[in-house]
């Protein structure tokens, strides 16, 4: 396999609306730049793109246009272009939710920047591919559910933080690309489930453009290894960073704890019998199904004209070892874990806000318990389970 890395700054101007909370929050400063970062994989002429954006999310039309235009550049099809958003709340408005719509100018600028970055991909280098799976105790389930199954959300109820005992996905998944024969790291991909809300407060930081902790962990990895790093948020719909929403001083600690675990992964090439993907043949697919709108859900205009909601799950398999699973929204960790548990691959890593923005993707009982995530869900209770089955069935098809 050969790879080439690329990135491009996508920081909007100060004064742009911030997407994370209120509809009228205007940015007053830029703390750090936003980027799209990615890797182009070449498996004997079959090229695949994986691109991560420092954005809250992207609508389906937006994702599909990027996939179509980039697929033409690499000579593939839409399934060969995987997108994902870190979900930083310190970025511009790029997705529809209820009556809120993307900033059209910024949306088209992101598309053009992506095309430009892909057109300018440099030389490819032959590599060996490794994976790693560690554990990092840096997230907390923000849904506080009582013993009679009624939920409140941690944000706004910090006095109840000691009661936050829900499920957490603490896996730090990694893909590592080493130059063949020299053991020089060429690119790292990190996957972890925690909302990029370490820095956000209801003061100035809530009005500041930032990539939050994903931007810091990328810089740490790149400074230490000398190789580009792509960060991918996992199923973080109900996962908060520990000590979340406490200002920019929280970023280095959150990133450093992930960095410490990632450093262990950088030794994976010393154990090829355990971590090397011997036959990293690339297989891609887009699996589709129709979901029904949840009763009383306030749908964006994009979906109001349709009787059902079209949903996509996008898959990228590396041999029979690793599968990346792109999902259409903010998947709760429990749902993501169902996909991981039922995966026919050795490991499955979830790509947050990948194929569309369908708001929260809750397990059925979370809708009974209520609270913020449940109130935001667009699709019906049983259709989240349909999404899980779609992903798992698709992974089995990749292996046939």
Task: Give your account of this protein's structure.
Strand 16 and strand 17 form a beta hairpin. This protein is an alpha/beta fold. The chain has three domains: 2-119, no CATH class; 132-198 and 232-275, no CATH class; 282-398, no CATH class. Strands 5-4-3-1-6-10-11-13 form an eight-stranded mixed β-sheet, sandwiched between helices. Strands 15-16-17-19 form a four-stranded mixed β-sheet, with helices on one face. The protein is built from ten helices and 20 strands. It has helices spanning 60-74, 104-119, 213-225, 250-265, 272-275, 301-304, 333-341, 364-369, 372-376, 383-398; strands at residues 2-9, 29-30, 35-43, 46-53, 81-85, 125-135, 139-141, 143-145, 151-153, 171-179, 185-192, 208-209, 229-233, 239-241, 282-291, 309-318, 322-326, 330-331, 347-351, 360-361. The model has no long low-confidence stretch (mean pLDDT 94).
Chart the SSEs and their pairings:
Layout: E1 2-9, E2 29-30, E3 35-43, E4 46-53, H1 60-74, E5 81-85, H2 104-119, E6 125-135, E7 139-141, E8 143-145, E9 151-153, E10 171-179, E11 185-192, E12 208-209, H3 213-225, E13 229-233, E14 239-241, H4 250-265, H5 272-275, E15 282-291, H6 301-304, E16 309-318, E17 322-326, E18 330-331, H7 333-341, E19 347-351, E20 360-361, H8 364-369, H9 372-376, H10 383-398
Helix pairs in contact: 1-2, 3-4, 7-10
């Amino acid at each position: 396999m050969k790879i080439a890395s690329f990135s491009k700054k996508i920081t909007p101007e100060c004064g742009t609306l911030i997407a994370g909370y209120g509809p009228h929050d205007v940015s007053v400063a830029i703390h750090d730049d936003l980027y799209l970062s990615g890797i182009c994989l070449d498996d004997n002429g079959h090229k695949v793109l994986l691109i991560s954006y420092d954005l809250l999310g992207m609508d389906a039309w937006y994702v599909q246009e990027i996939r179509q235009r980039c697929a033409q550049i690499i000579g593939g099809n839409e399934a060969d272009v995987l997108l994902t958003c870190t979900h930083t709340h310190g970025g511009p408005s790029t997705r529809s939710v209820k009556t809120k719509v993307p900033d059209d100018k910024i949306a088209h600028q992101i598309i053009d920047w992506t095309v430009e970055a892909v057109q300018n991909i440099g030389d490819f280098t032959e590599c060996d591919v490794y994976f790693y799976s560690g554990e990092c105790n840096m997230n907390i389930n923000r849904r506080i559910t009582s013993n009679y199954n009624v939920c409140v959300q941690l944000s706004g109820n910090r006095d109840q933080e000691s009661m936050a005992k829900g499920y957490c996905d603490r896996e730090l998944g990694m893909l590592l690309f080493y130059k063949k024969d020299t053991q020089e790291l060429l690119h790292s991909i990190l996957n972890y489930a925690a909302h990029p809300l370490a820095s956000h407060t209801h003061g100035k930081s809530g009005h500041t453009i930032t990539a939050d902790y994903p931007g810091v962990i990328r810089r740490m990895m790149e400074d230490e290894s000398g190789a580009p790093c792509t960060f991918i948020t996992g199923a973080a719909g109900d996962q908060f960073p520990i000590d979340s929403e406490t200002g920019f001083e929280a970023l280095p600690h959150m990133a450093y704890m992930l960095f410490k675990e990632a450093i262990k992964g950088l030794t994976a090439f010393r154990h090829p019998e355990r971590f090397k993907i011997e036959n990293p043949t690339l297989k891609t697919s887009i699996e589709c199904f129709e979901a029904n709108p949840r009763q009383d859900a306030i749908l964006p205009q994009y979906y109001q004209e349709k009787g059902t909601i079209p949903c996509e799950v996008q898959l990228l398999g590396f041999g029979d070892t690793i599968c990346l699973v792109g999902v259409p929204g903010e998947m709760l960790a429990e749902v993501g874990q169902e996909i991981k548990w039922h995966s026919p691959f050795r490991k499955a890593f979830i790509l947050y806000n990948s194929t569309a923005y369908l708001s929260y993707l809750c397990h059925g009982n979370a809708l009974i318990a209520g609270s913020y995530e449940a109130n935001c869900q667009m699709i019906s209770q049983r259709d989240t389970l349909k999404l899980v089955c779609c992903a798992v069935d698709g992974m089995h098809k990749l292996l046939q």
